[in-house]
Amino acid sequence: MQLQNTMGVVFVGIIFLIPLSIIVYSYIIILFTLSKRLKPENTATNVSSQDTVGNQVNNTFQKAKKNTLVTVLIISFCFIICWVQNQGLLFKHYLGYGIDWNSNYYHYTVLMVNLNCMVNPFIYLVKYHDYQQALREFIGLGKRETGGQSEGSITHFSTVSK
After folding, report:
1. Predicted pLDDT at 161
2. By three-state DSSP, how is residue 51 classified?
3. Which residues have C-beta within 8 Å of that of residue 156, sequence separation ≥ 6?
4. How many CB atoms lie within 10 A of CB 65?
């Protein structure tokens, strides 16, 4: 029984705590990198036109840093919400408590774990313009210019099908 308890703690750590730590660590590195680019010595300040460009670059990095921070918080929150209930049940099981594996609650926790696999692309889609544009292009609503015509235009398809 002691081995089961120990293995349960290790298993929960491997399945839940290590991935959460990797997510948070990765975004901290990204935020650190963006913060280094925001330092005053990295912006041009000698000439007034360069100062304006430097401020624009600085503002861009500040927005990127804020977007990254908000994104990591949302992704981490979703990861925790989706996984904590299922891992809590497994942890209780490994500690020797009886778990009804056929209960609706257990199936709900499995559904939440599976939902976590699907939620990240939607978070990125809501947060980032590049993902939105890529989706528009993928479903044929985006505008990719080729010789003055959009690839999704009727003219383009009519000339290709002739």
Report:
1. 37
2. helix
3. 146, 149, 150
4. 18
Given phi > 0 = left and psi -120 to 50 = alpha, else beta, which region is 143?
A: beta
Spatial contact of 103 and 85, defined as CB atoms under 8 Å apart: no
- 44 φ, ψ to 5°? -75, 130
What gap in Å lies between CA 87 and CA 9, rounded to an integer? 10
Measure the CA–CA gap between 157 and 26, rounded to whole angstroms: 43
- Give ∠ CA 3-4-5 in degrees, rounded to 5: 90
Tell me how many helices (H) and strands (E) the chain has.
Answer: 6, 2
Phi, psi dihedrals of residue 150, rounded to the nearest 5°: -75, 140
For 32-68, how does the pLDDT look when each residue is reduced to its tens digit (9 = 90+)?
887 777 665 544 444 455 566 667 777 877 887 788 8
Sign of the torsion formed by the C-alpha atoms of 155, 158, 161 and 162: negative
